[in-house]
Write a structure and sequence with these properties.
about 230 residues, alpha/beta, Rossmann fold, about 45% helix, NAD(P)-bd_dom_sf, oxidoreductase, SDR_fam, Sc_DH/Rdtase_CS, 3-oxoacyl-[acyl-carrier protein] reductase
Length: about 230
């Protein structure tokens, strides 16, 4: 896929991996729209990036529908969806509640699925498209305290594999990218990024991996990729 002039939609694009990815793709000529739940933050990030802002919560079906309507009205074509929006925290098994599952799954699983559903409808008509789901290394190996979050990423991994089989006949590439720990605002209530940990991955490393996966010639795709910090300890 050629990045220049491609029309790309990134969920959760106001901070961290989504923001870094939007910046890199825009620098290389893509037309990018970012979504975020907070209107003020979303518009601020979009101004900084030169992106199109869409205030939306992927966990809200009406917002998902409006997101694609707004995007298609602006660009007329969708070349790639980057399912980046995600939330999470750690809780031991005896402390988890049904509400914990509902909160995290509503974004990480149900929201990603509904975004993927809408994108698939467009891609089938176009006979072309790309989906990158941002998973986690927690999607491949559970950990203490990860009952809710890790299982949500395992679910995303399973959905990715299903979409790959369903959409390949329509020239749609579906890819999963699993970062290990990244120095972003993820999981932090104050939503400020951690930029002083030189041994951890940054959003820009993940952005480069996303760009590289998209730039692979359309005749092939990378089903799943993990990006690890070399020595995070």
């Amino acid at each position: 896929m050629k990045i220049e002039n491609a029309n790309i939609l990134i969920t959760g694009g106001t901070l961290g991996i989504g923001y870094a990815t939007a910046r890199l793709l825009i620098e290389h000529g893509a037309n990018v729209a970012i979504t975020g739940r907070d209107e003020k933050r979303t518009h601020k990030a979009a101004r900084e990036l030169g992106a199109m802002p869409i205030t939306a919560d992927v966990a809200n079906p009406d917002d998902v529908k409006q997101t694609f309507k707004t995007f298609m009205n602006e660009y007329g074509r969708l070349d790639a969806l980057i399912n980046n929006a995600g939330i999470g925290y750690s809780k031991r098994l005896e402390d988890v509640s049904l509400e914990d599952f509902q909160q995290i799954y509503s974004v990480n699983v149900f929201g990603a699925a509904m975004m993927g559903k809408r994108a698939a409808e467009i891609f089938k008509k176009q006979n072309y498209g790309n989906i990158i789901n941002i998973g986690s290394t927690a999607a491949t190996k559970g950990y203490e305290g990860g009952t809710v979050y890790a299982s949500s990423k395992f679910a995303l991994r399973g959905m990715t594999q299903c979409w790959q089989m369903e959409l390949r006949p329509y020239n749609v590439r579906v890819m999963l990218l699993n970062p290990s720990e990244v120095t972003t605002a993820f999981g932090r209530e104050e939503r400020e990024e951690r930029d002083s940990q030189p041994n951890k991955l940054r959003g820009r490393e993940i952005a480069r991996a996303i760009k590289g996966a998209l730039e692979l010639d359309d005749r092939g795709f990378i089903p799943e990729m993990a990006v690890w910090a070399t020595n995070p300890f």
